[in-house]
Amino acid sequence: MNFDQLTTAKLNYYVYALENQETNRIFYVGKGKGNRVFSHQEGVLKQQDMFDGENSNDKNNEIANILRQGNKVRSYIVRWNLQEKEALKLESSIIDLLNLNKIFDLTNIVRGNQTEFGITTTQEISNRFNATPLLESEINDKIIFVNINKEYYNCLESGHINFDKIYEKTRYSWLVALWRANQAKYICTVYRGIVKATFLKEGDWFLHREYDQVTKAGKKIKKKRYAFNGTLVENSFYDNKDVSVFYKKGSIGPIKYTY
Fold this sequence. Notes:
The chain is α+β, with helices and mostly antiparallel strands and about 260 residues long. It has helices at about 5-10, 35-45, 60-70, 85-100, 120-130, 165-170, 180, and strands at about 15-20, 25-30, 75-80, 145, 155, 160, 185-190, 195-215, 220-230, 255. The chain has a five-stranded mixed β-sheet with strand order 9-8-7-4-10. It has a three-stranded antiparallel β-sheet with strand order 2-1-3. Helix 2 (about 35-45) crosses helix 3. The protein is elongated and about 65 Å long. Residues about 50-55 have low confidence and may be disordered.
């Protein structure tokens, strides 16, 4: 199915949802215009053999399985006649809301647009706005800050931090100078300048993976990334402290040292 020209002209930008007709489960939320809502199923129908191997993703696998069973993908327009920015915000909000309920198990790879303003607990909102800066005079330990901005929301369950997940995202794998990194007592997980978790390092950092990297000049060099073992420090003094001063504007790299 496709919309006719008159319908596409009237719709403008819209937010849509795809549902498994047999299970009544919404499995994907997106935004678009024109016939975007139908493009996912059409893509699978044209290249169905691609969705059984490395090139597959959860959404395409879901659609392919629905079609193989002789069922249909049911599609909904949630809101229409939107400006693109409105559609992006609404798409992200619906994804966040449905992800609160694990029954939906959405196949979206990303959470949408402006996720930094997305769903969170009331406690975390309060923590974010009331975080006090960590002063140099308050630092009595050697600490490494690890910024996991891109991965932080994969560590949340129903808006709360899953500390097992945040530990795994924090502990590996990083480009560090071993002589320096091994001096650290604590490793702190940082999201948008705020410490979200503190881990007591156990032993030295260890090699996690090694690979070749080709420079712009065409030279092949060895790269080594390291990991650490540690235990969560509950109610650490450093938790919820604002450490954004260590991530000055324009600075690159997720690893920062206090020493």
